[in-house]
């Protein structure tokens, strides 16, 4: 946020602030307040996300895994030979196993994830199960500039894997920018992209308001993280989880709603909250197949086949480039 001036914090001038610190300060100083969803994924947040994926209400993970399982041979056939797989936001490295099993012996796998702590354990387990595969974990925020190692084989095809509808966290402009840079990175290969589809808002509502409250805990974990890493004094009990479908913008929004008027101290600044004031913590955009394809073409991809489940809840696209 351009209106937030970091130089107004005399005590902190000498010490470089982490990305999380900077984004928290600017997010708290802006109105409406917001925090980018990538900060959900510290160790505890990544573990909570894994629990979300197993919830009965959270259909995306289960549905995408089913599509990938049922159509693996067909998908692999369309992808063709791949020298390496680059996964964006790799998480627990579960879904890629289906690809590794189906594709014609890829040599190298590059999982990129923002949570190093979580990635390390997942990589150790994957290496044990795929001894012939070179696994090079990259701890990076792939929404910023990052470097990939040189191709593993000269002229070898690089295939991108971006499952889980993580693309939906981006604004439409950010999604286009991300896809443009992915298209450059993957030229000669393509991107296997999983995105959640527009559907009955009641189903969406349940998926982000689960009965066990795991999604609420995932949302509130941001405040625990800010307390632990930045010495903030959020009282998590002062905030309630809110998730709703914004139909005109075709997205689920998650917020943390202040239950009462109170103040929070963060990195030498004091932020006051009115009762009912929210911190916007996530957008999860939903797509139509045509809308996604239009976006992909704008970014420089070609159009390949799309696979969906029988209820058309979720879609997996092969985008050659
Ligand atoms: C990982 C961004 C795809 O938007 O569904 C799950 C994150 N947030 N429940 C999603 C999430 C709340 C998830 N993505």
Task: Write structural notes for this entry.
With 321 residues, this protein is α/β, with parallel strands linked by helices. Helix content is 35%, strand content 23%. It contains ten helices and 14 strands. Strands 2, 3, 4, 5, 6, 7, 13 and 14 form an eight-stranded mixed β-sheet that branches. A four-stranded mixed β-sheet has the order 1-12-9-8. Strands 10-11 form a two-stranded antiparallel sheet. Strand 2, helix 5 and strand 3 form a beta-alpha-beta unit. The longest helix has 17 residues. The model has no long low-confidence stretch (mean pLDDT 93). N,N,N-trimethyl-histidine binds next to strand 12. It comes from Variovorax robiniae. This is L-histidine N(Alpha)-methyltransferase. InterPro entries: EgtD, EgtD_Methyltrsf_superfamily, MeTrfase_dom, MeTrfase_EgtD-like, SAM-dependent_MTases_sf.
Question: Which SSEs are present, and which pair or pack?
Answer:
Blueprint: H1 19-29, E1 33-34, H2 43-53, H3 59-70, H4 72-79, E2 84-88, H5 96-102, E3 108-113, H6 116-129, E4 134-135, E5 138-139, E6 158-162, H7 172-185, E7 190-196, H8 201-207, H9 214-230, E8 239-246, E9 251-258, E10 262-266, E11 269-273, E12 278-285, H10 289-298, E13 306-308, E14 314-320
Parallel strand pairs: 1-12, 2-3, 2-6, 3-4, 3-5, 6-7
Antiparallel strand pairs: 7-14, 8-9, 9-12, 10-11, 13-14
Helix pairs in contact: 2-9
The chain binds N,N,N-trimethyl-histidine (AVJ).
């Amino acid at each position: 946020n351009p209106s937030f001036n970091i130089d107004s914090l005399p005590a902190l001038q000498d010490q470089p602030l982490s990305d999380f610190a900077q984004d928290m300060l600017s997010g708290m100083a802006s109105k409406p307040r917001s925090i980018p969803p990538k900060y959900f994924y510290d160790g505890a947040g990544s573990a909570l996300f894994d629990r979300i994926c197993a919830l009965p209400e959270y259909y995306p993970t289960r549905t995408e895994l089913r599509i990938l399982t049922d159509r693996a041979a067909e998908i692999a056939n369309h992808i063709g030979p791949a020298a390496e797989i680059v996964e964006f936001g790799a998480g627990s490295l579960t879904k890629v196993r289906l690809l590794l099993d189906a594709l014609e012996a890829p040599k190298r796998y590059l999982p990129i994830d923002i949570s190093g702590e979580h990635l390390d354990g997942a990589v150790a387990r994957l290496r044990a199960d795929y001894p012939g595969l070179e696994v090079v974990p990259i701890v990076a925020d792939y929404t910023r500039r990052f470097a990939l190692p040189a191709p593993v084989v000269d002229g070898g095809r690089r295939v991108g894997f971006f499952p889980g509808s993580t693309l939906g966290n981006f604004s439409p402009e950010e999604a286009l920018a991300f896809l443009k840079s992915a298209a450059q990175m993957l030229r000669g290969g393509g991107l296997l992209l999983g995105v959640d589809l527009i559907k009955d808002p009641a189903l969406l509502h349940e998926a982000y308001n689960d009965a066990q409250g795991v999604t609420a805990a995932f949302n509130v974990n941001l405040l625990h993280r800010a307390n632990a890493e930045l010495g903030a004094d959020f009282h998590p009990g002062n905030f309630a989880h809110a998730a709703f479908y914004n139909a005109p913008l075709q997205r689920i929004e998650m917020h943390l709603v202040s239950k009462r008027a109170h103040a929070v101290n963060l990195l030498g600044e004091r932020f006051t909250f009115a009762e009912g004031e929210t911190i916007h913590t996530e957008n999860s955009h939903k797509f139509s197949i045509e809308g996604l394809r239009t976006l992909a073409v704008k970014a420089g991809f070609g159009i390949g086949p799309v696979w969906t489940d029988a209820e058309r809840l979720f879609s997996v696209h092969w985008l050659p480039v």
